[in-house]
Amino acid sequence: xxxxxxANFGSKLGVILATAGSAVGLGNVxxxxxxxxxxxxxxxxxxxxxCVFLLGIPCMVSEFIIGRHAAAxxxxxxxxxxxxxxxxxxxxxxxxxGFLIMGYYVVVSGWCLQxxxxxxxxxxxxxxxxxxxxxxxxxxxxxxxVLWTVVFMFLTHYxxxxxxxxxxxxxxxxxxxxxxxxxxxxxxxSCMLPGAGKxxxxxxxxxxxxxxxxxxxxxxxxxxxxLSIGMxxxxxxxxxxxxxxxxxxxxxxxxxxxxxxxxxxxxxxxPAAFSVGINPDSGPSLVFxxxxxxxxxxxxxxxxxxxxxxxxxxxLLALAALTSLISLHEVSTAFIHEEFHTTRKRAALIVTxxxxxxxxxxxxxxxxxxxxxxxxxxxxxxxxxxxxxxxxPIGGFLTCLFVGWYLPHKMVHDEFTNxxxxxxxxxxxxxxxxxxxxxxxxxxxxxxxxGLI
Length: 453
Ligand code: TRP
Fold this sequence. Notes:
Blueprint: H1 12-23, H2 26-30, H3 32-38, H4 42-70, H5 74-82, H6 88-120, H7 128-140, H8 144-161, H9 164-191, H10 196-204, H11 213-226, H12 233-238, H13 247-275, H14 283-298, H15 303-339, H16 344-364, E1 373-374, E2 377-378, H17 379-406, H18 409-416, H19 427-449
Antiparallel strand pairs: 1-2
Helix pairs in contact: 1-9, 1-13, 1-15, 3-13, 4-5, 4-11, 4-13, 4-17, 4-19, 5-6, 6-8, 6-15, 6-16, 6-17, 7-14, 8-9, 8-15, 8-16, 9-13, 9-15, 10-13, 11-19, 13-14, 14-15, 15-16, 17-19
Tryptophan is lined by residues 22-23, 25-28, 225-226, 228, 230-231, 233, 324, 327-328, 392.
């Protein structure tokens, strides 16, 4: 079962599904479709795919190389190569970033559970104002969102507690196929609506006039977030890969799955929204206010289909969030388990309890504790902004420099080619991207978002 005393994934399919589970998350559903629709449809999708291939995949492979070679948690992985230099801190920084992302990601995941429950009970119908009020009242409630946050955290805990193979891998093998089935049910129902064609052409009509510098940078940021790059999620999972895993091929497969889910998410949202003439937006208001209204109106002829689609949609979101949260949780659990020499179960419990507290505080900062603000933003927004816009780009940037310029070339080559057993056709392209293209591009988005360029 174990390889040199350390847990590992049991099969190739397990590797792909677990890592794709980390990548496919809320980011695919509530940001990608909107960004594509708003930034030139197919033109954006093409740019996005270029970003994924030229920048996302090299960064993903880099994290894989570090993780698999060290076969340790992210902090120890960086430390073990750093020879006492400051590079060792990059790993700790990644673990901290993951921990903080988890703090607000779990709150939104909890909202999904509430909506699964509400759609199951048939509560989600009324006027457009009803949906706005419903969400705002719920979000500000001092009790319910906190309860769902804690429930979601313990759900994640339950899977993590069972270990890598029996927990993460087994859960991914069940959850990911279910997610695909739900996705297809909604896409088919949405695309069969009268007037759905307008939504499809909105998404796929290339409008090159909408493309400017912002679109490139937006696509790049979205690609990184969606592929879970920049904080050691991929590095931790790669520490459970076997020596036979083809890193480059796995990265390509995972990225293709992630991109396909993002595009399919567009095909579930736009046709339905256009068929009832509602303009979709992005983020929480899209998912929790606009879409329930869209589903209700679009399927008003056959309410049972509307009921099933809404239930399938929130179920899908909850599953996508769960598999991403598992990967975030695992980063901190592996860190505490290995660095503080506690059992895995105890490490998982420490992470679950502490992130439940952070999640609860983040959730309360939107309602009862709304005085809890920094620079006029709620704690929830601060977590989102600070991790996504600041910590992730810094982490990604440092990882590129670390692999491209610091690690011994031979070691990188050995990992890339599985010790010479693979041809490694793309190795030179990979090195070129990771040395020059990726760091420069990440630096550009970073500076651009602060208006510095
Ligand atoms: N990729 C996930 C999504 O699309 C979110 C996520 C999980 C993430 N782990 C991450 C983002 C690590 C950045 C880094 O929703």
